[in-house]
Amino acid sequence: xxxxxxxxxxxxxxxxxxxxxxxxxxxxxxxxxxxxxxxxxxxxxxxxxxxxxxxxxxxxxxxxxxxxxxxxxxxxxxxxxxxxxxxxxxxxxxxxxxxxxxxxxxxxxxxxxxxxxxxxxxxxxxxxxxxxxxxxxxxxxxxxxxxxxxxxxxxxxxxxxxxxxxxxxxxxxxxxxxxxxxxxxxxxxxxxxxxxxxxxxxxxxxxxxxxxxxxxxxxxxxxxxxxxxxxxxxxxxxxxxxxxxxxxxxxxxxxxxxxxxxxxxxxxxxxxxxxxxxxxxxxxxxxxxxxxxxxxxxxxxxxxxxxxxxxxxxxxxxxxxxxxxxxxxxxxxxxxxxxxxxxxxxxx
Length: 348
Description:
CATH superfamily: ABC transporter involved in vitamin B12 uptake, BtuC
Number of domains: 1
Number of strands: 0
Helix content: over 70%
Order of helices and strands: HHHHHHHHHHHHHH
Shape: globular
Oligomer: single chain
Strand content: under 5%
Radius of gyration: 21 Å
Structural class: mainly alpha
CATH architecture: Orthogonal Bundle
Low-confidence stretches: 1-13
Number of helices: 14
């Protein structure tokens, strides 16, 4: 019992400092995101305008009506969607890593995103439906993709090592992506729009933000409530049972919550990779391994990471715009190689 309590308590004591610092970074990234664009707006005017939007406040920012419209209708929803999607993907990655006890687990490596993307493509291309039904279809696809990868990974047995599940996820992702590509051929005239969706896009406006918000709230609350249980599972199923924790029930709840988070993110932003593996690993390095701190910090840092990635995507080749998925892949691919090398070194 003492071995279980010491790291959890240490991470818990550090929690307020890390959370406050992460919130400060997120706020700075969001303000920078509001400032970025062809039209130059004073940072002080942006701050005043944000304060004016708050309830029970009345502040004159000095912005012209056109500038206020630009800020409120274009930049603000884009920053908020990026923050929500980044937070969801990072939390989902942390949840998957806790469930499978695999540091390489990630929504995109386990087939969750590919399943959600396939289901979303089917709904959009073959069965046009109201916007609100897309996350439901994406959720079913995400759960199906993860379960398929898990079942395929189990066929290799325990001797496959920590990389077995990831290899199964890569195989499932490739298979589902090939089906998605085949279905896209039925709408050749919309390939450019579909291709842009595959590379990621957070510029959908307020409709996308309000669409993803309820799913984000439910999945985030469920994952945060299971942080302590994931800490218990990390010491092994036998020890968890002796402490009165039903391991199978906890895994199922976290798996569904993480899949819901992934599905919601994919439904509104497309396929944005590597957020779920980069952010949780950085958080663990800085703040410790307790999921009571990893999950909330992953939510905040994931939001900041994707807002910053979107800022880079909008400015690096301005006035043109780089797909946000290209930015995350540029950062995430070498990071994944480094994590893989560390995992192999630890295994030997």
